[in-house]
Amino acid sequence: MNLLFEDSRAFDNLDKEAYLIYLANKNFYKLFKKTNIDIYKDIVSMITDERTEMYSTKSIFLNNKLVGIVNFYDAGEILLRQMFGLGYLMINSEVTDKKIQDFSANLPDIEDESLYLSRICIEKTHRGMGYSSEILKFYENSALQKGYTSLSLHVHKNNKPALNAYRKFGFYIGTDSNAYLKLLKKL
Amino acid sequence: MNNQEIFKKVASILSQIIKCDLSEINESTSANDIDRWDSLTHVHLVLAVEKEFEIRFSLGELQDLQNVKDMVLMVENKKSI
Question: For position A44, which CATH number holds?
């Protein structure tokens, strides 16, 4: 397997990347009264704005075909980056769920000074082929190159397949205080 | 675009975001005056203003945006460059 990782913002045509990001956050985006086209436009704006978490999205290619995306950044930047992303979605939108308004008060526990994995999304037809461990290895190498000593991420308690994959890769549960578990891996 | 025109647009955007009457907003209005103006609302306002005027604030500049007047002046500066 030879996966290639490229900065998503480097592409002129971001439609496919935006679609994978859309899939990775579908349930969340449903909280906004917006058309899919408007959501894609927001995502493209986010990918090119260094203040949002989408800016650090990498596109994953296999034999020149886009098969997924991965997104990671410094855990200390989580609040700012997520708020800016949310800001884009809130423009020209009626928010349909009160939990968005409570967002800033309910951010998950953050592990300082770690590289934070925000999301992985693998295109449907390429799932179950063992890419996640290769992606996690890329993520780990990036962290080491940048001088980090730990990795962190959040995963929903009910997402057993993802939880198993992370544990197999060496992550352990750091905090177990709400619906999302904080997972850590020391490097 | 002069200072007053920018103020009118910024005030209009802010009143829509925090759902208040336009008459409640003046140049000295800040987050301290309005309960609903929290950090998330602030980011929403910043992005809506950026979109309206086709400008971008740097992270350093965002810290200097304390009230409506600050935002109007910064938009004016950016548009005059």
Answer: 3.40.630.30
Say how many C-beta atoms besides its own lie within 10 A of residue B9's C-beta.
16
| Phi, psi dihedral angles at B53 (to 5 degrees) | -100, 0
* Homologous superfamily of domain range B3-80: ACP-like (1.10.1200.10)
Domain boundaries, chain B: 3-80
Structural domain of residue A107, as residue ranges? 3-186
Q: Taking Cα atoms as reference points, which of A71, A51, A55, A62 lies closest to residue A139?
A: A71
**Per-residue pLDDT tens over the stretch B25-43:** 999 999 888 888 888 889 9
Measured CA distances, A29 to A25, A148, B27 (Å): 6, 31, 34
Structure tokens at A168: 């197999």
pLDDT tens by residue, A6-46: 999 988 888 888 988 898 888 888 888 899 999 999 999 99
Is A178 in a helix, a strand, or coil?
A: coil
CB pair distance less than 8 Å for B59 and A90: no
- Is the Cβ pair A91, B51 closer than 8 Å? yes
**pTM score, two decimals?**
0.85
DSSP state of B53: H
Best of A41, A50, A84, A93 to disrupt the B interface (most B CBs within 10 Å) is A84
